[in-house]
Amino acid sequence: MEKSLNWREFIITRAIKASGYSAVVFVLLIFFFLLREGLPALGEVDASSLLNIRWYPIEDHFGILPLITGSIIITFGAALIAVPFGIGTAVYISEIAPRWMREILKPLVELLGGLPSVVLGFLGILVLSPYLRILLDLPTGLTAFTGSLLLGGIAVPTVVSVAEDALDSVPRAYREGAWALGATKWQTIWRVTLPAAKSGVLTAVMLGVGRAIGETMTVMMVTGNAPVMATKLGSLFSPVRTMTATIAAEMGEVANGSTHYHVLFFIGMVLFLISLVVNVIASSVVFRSKKRAERILS
Amino acid sequence: MTNKILIENLSLQYSDGTESLRGVSMGIRQNAVTVLFGPAGGGKSTLLRCLNRLNDLTEIKASAGRILIDEENILDAKTDVIALRRKVGMVFARPVPLPMSIRENVTYGLELAGEKRKSKLDEAVERSLKLSAVWDEVKDRLNDPAIALSGGQQQRVCLARVIALQPEIILLDEPTSGLDPISTGKVEAALLELKKEYTIILVPHSIQQAARTADYAAFFLQGELIEYGEGKSLFTVPKQKKTEDYIMGRFG
């Protein structure tokens, strides 16, 4: 009896440990694979042509700058939409909505988060882009702006659910303290509840941005995929191509081991790096505020 | 002395079915400490939360009766709740310093009320921190976050925050339940000072505290007001058997 319990204990602990380590191992393996396939690009194409503004792989033009700016401008636009909408919705759900409304809205937002992005892309092509083309009088509706709108929509559920959790975990006593001082609901939200949930809300924003950078299918469908440098604000209304869409579109047709193939992996490395930076910023913000609170409480 | 507050036949039932107050009627005197005591779930906190309408934000199924403050029914739908809450301040069981500095905690209510002059705000900070007996301990670090203070100091800052608004009535819901005896003593001493200017209603965290502080005392049991009278006589010669049993520690 005693013995078998010990054995069970041993196996279970080891199994849990192994699954914990495996997450780290997988990330490292992916990273090494990316490095192995991507780094040779630096040897085959010199840095100046990598930083060129022309992406035309068939004629050996491997400038990845237009792809990076394309990703950035779309992500930036998406964040402009997703952050105010997401936080606003989270505040509404957690602070203002009556209980029955909350019980309808929360699952709906989660449902929206689970919507396959290809479906959204579909709606983008068929509904949003023709509408925008006519409304804004553009030569084509497949623009960075269209992508930003849809990506914003994709990021909103992420922002809402994380920010709503953060607001929800602010003790009710904080709100009552402010109400009892004669604060209105809005004053309480703005001066007390949101500052108290600050780190969680920032995490929500970062996760939303991360979601937008990594999204592939929707942007590939609605942004027109023209690798043009996005240099000015007007580029928002012309077609662009993102890093993710480039990899997805070209990886299937490239010769294994060719320069083009290596450059595509190099783009993957850049993408990996960008989302790593976003994550590090997010966690350092959270970590810093936590450390500050700990210092104060000790 | 006159009745500052008159509660008439107040009943209240929460949405989850628990009945919290049943036909409570009592008058509360000006410039005195009135203590509401009794076992948990007796309706003391609910009554406090009716007095500044904080219960508006909880789900309530039914309520009846009237509460007159200065002869005005504050349960009336036309009452300006924000103005009411400035007039009827409240201190909670757990000190809840808002996520700001000590000074901002004290001035927050005033700023909400539209006070912007720095001289007025500074004056209010000093006056109310002195009245709540915490000035000497925090005067050199008013810009530190309030959450850095000890529990007892936090609670007195919360009291100062309420006093800064110059309310007429101060409600305290077990304000010393998490405090050590020394801090408790300081809060109680502050109350003695405060009752010269304010009407104070206190839910104490022990019978000893009730007996120490009460000018008037009201014993609540399961939502009903069992006995109400002057503190001294109620704690020495209670009229009701239930009150006596509770004070003697036979139940509760």
Describe the structure.
The complex is a heterodimer of chains A (298) and B (252). With 298 residues, chain A is mainly alpha-helical. Chain A folds into two domains: 2-38; 42-297, MetI-like (MetI-like fold), CATH 1.10.3720. Chain A contains 13 helices and two strands, in the order αααββαααααααααα. Chain A has a two-stranded antiparallel sheet with strand order 1-2. In chain A, helix 5 (99-113) crosses helix 7 (144-168). In chain A, 37% of the residues are buried. The mean pLDDT of chain A is 86. Chain B is of the alpha/beta class. Chain B has one domain (3-247): P-loop containing nucleotide triphosphate hydrolases (Rossmann fold), CATH 3.40.50. Chain B has helices at 44-51, 81-87, 102-112, 118-131, 135-138, 151-164, 181-194, 207-213, 231-236, 241-247, and strands spanning 3-14, 19-29, 33-37, 60-69, 72-73, 88-91, 169-173, 199-203, 216-221, 224-230. In chain B, the strands form two sheets. Chain B has a six-stranded mixed sheet, sandwiched between helices. Chain A binds chain B through residues 99, 171, 173-174, 176-184, 187, 191-192, 195-196, 293, 296-297, and chain B through 52, 54, 57, 59, 82-83, 85-86, 89-90, 92, 94, 96, 98-100, 108-109, 112-113, 145, 147-148, 158, 161-162, 165.
